[in-house]
Amino acid sequence: MNWQRRLFELMQPQRGRMLAALGLSLLASTAGIGLMAVSGHFIASMALVGAGAAAINYYTPAALVRLFAILRTGGRYAERLCGHDATLSILARLRGWLFGRLIPLAPAALAEQRGAQLLSRLRADIDTLEQSYLGLWLPSAVAACSALVVLVVAACWSGWFALLLMPLLLFAGAWLPWRLQASHADDAAQIDRDAEALRAAWADALAGRAELTMWGAEDAFDARMEQLTAQREAARARTQRGLARADAMLAACSGIALSVALLIGVLAMQQRHLDGPGLALLAMLAMAAFEPLLPLPLAWSRLAAIKAAAQRVFELADRAPVVLDPATPVAMPQATDLHLREVWMRHAQHGEWALRGLNLDLTAGTHLALVGASGAGKSSLAQLLGRLYPYQGSVTLGGTALDQLGADDVRARLAIVEQAPYLFDASLRDNLRIAAPDADDATLLRVLAVAQLDEFLRELPNGLDTWVGANGVNLSGGEARRLAIARALLVDAPVLVLDEPSEGLDALTTAALYKSLAVETRGRSVLLITHRLGGIAALVDEVAVIEQGRIVARRTVEGFAAQTTDSLRDAG
Ligand SMILES: Nc1ncnc2c1ncn2[C@@H]1O[C@H](COP(=O)(O)OP(=O)(O)OP(=O)(O)O)[C@@H](O)[C@H]1O
């Protein structure tokens, strides 16, 4: 299905408002043409009366002038109201539709997209698509219908006049805008590419300002921005020149039409088929016929951008989610033993394997640490358990395959605190309540105490109402991580997976955190992912070692500590 059809289908629910705006716009436009033509006739008649040449019926044309003027002004006002209402509804629908499509894609099917860049590009694309109705299709439809009305009126008076007017209208209303958009398609693509590159550069400049300043790379960065801006402006200027040429040619067409009308009109006057006011009406009609065509060059210069935006949006929306919920999820088992057999997983479809035939058992109530070097695959395992990425091999929870269970059911059993948890631009309370919307303040304070944030909270003048900022920017890394741990504790899930919870914490706080977590999670399973071994004995009973995506050893925590000491002694 081509992109226009799909776009129209998406706009279908707003069909009524769109048609109403079209009708009103057509009314305003034809009333404008009528006003010009009747005014010409009326003024010429009045001049003749003034010269004493004739007596005329004053009332009918005066009433028509008033009627057309009212219809033109009122129609234009109502059309704007209705058109913008339709556009805003289309915008809301497009945004909602796209958001609904994107949610199941993140993160696996959007692996190659950067969050901020994706967001700003989609925003720009949706804004461009929003213009498709009001900025392109509506003026085109109005111009076509108005031209048809003028041709019918002209044909009623003289077939020749209509025949001569038609090619001029076709040239100005169809060929000119089409030619303009075709000859500037490369410029439109260039503007689009440069805008995308500039958006990415701006996102980098804002996020990486400190690095750019620190390493003295600001000038090079600024030069790149300037080059992109200059390139885009050059393409814009070429398009503007094309637009100016098209406008001039349109005005020339209108002038030629006027000359044709005068020529035919004068000939008709000689044969006494037309009087002076009739000639003025004809001339004004010919000129006014081109008025609805004036927005067309600009409207059609938008076509390439609209097409590119639609194709990008549909390409993204058509992507299949990589992790699919089963059509009929199996009922959640009571048991919570977790078994992984020969599990392979990677982040991108053709990327490197992060887990390579991993085997791991976490029977109910076990507290296990997963340790390994950076890049060994620890976080990948947490992401797999959170059902964010597909896998090969067998993963069972309570004896049922993980991919047979509903994703929400799995998440209710498995609470996962990621290595870089996301915090929302909201208060501490709201960030916690995302996990348990009904939790009261006492419950929140209790889990914050378990996460060793009670002292921190006491020092905050606004307590739970403290604003954490976008992605917890107002908190330290360690505070943000502990807030995420507190949030996970609210779920009361039988299996808790903690990815590097001690990152950014001093040894004393780490020890206190592990101790309170040990009490809080008694009877539940814990998978502690870490590369910092200090203090883990307070929380876990066993340690599994991961290397290059496989478990290579598993020991009691005491056995592991003894072996590590021996290895260090041997190395020394
Ligand atoms: N989003 C991603 N896209 C592509 N590859 C990834 C992604 N995340 C991790 N990887 C790759 O997967 C492999 C395992 O990474 P993972 O983050 O699981 O390691 P880790 O043991 O948790 O390391 P660290 O202790 O440094 O966090 C690495 O080779 C890494 O480069």
TrEMBL record:
Subcellular location: Cell membrane
Source species: Luteibacter jiangsuensis
Domain ABC transporter: 338-571
Residue spans crossing the bilayer: 42-71, 133-154, 160-178, 248-268, 280-300
Gene of this entry: cydC
InterPro entries associated with the record: AAA+_ATPase, ABC1_TM_dom, ABC1_TM_sf, ABC_CydC/D, ABC_transporter-like_ATP-bd, ABC_transporter-like_CS, P-loop_NTPase, Type_1_exporter
This protein's record includes keyword Transmembrane: yes
SMART domains membership: AAA
One Pfam family from the record: ABC_tran
UniProt name for this protein: Thiol reductant ABC exporter subunit CydC
Coiled-coil blocks: none
Membrane topology type: Multi-pass membrane protein
SUPFAM superfamilies cross-referenced by the UniProt entry: ABC transporter transmembrane region (SSF90123), P-loop containing nucleoside triphosphate hydrolases (SSF52540)
Limits of the ABC transmembrane type-1 domain: 19-305
Keywords of the record: ATP-binding, Membrane, Nucleotide-binding, Transmembrane, Transmembrane helix
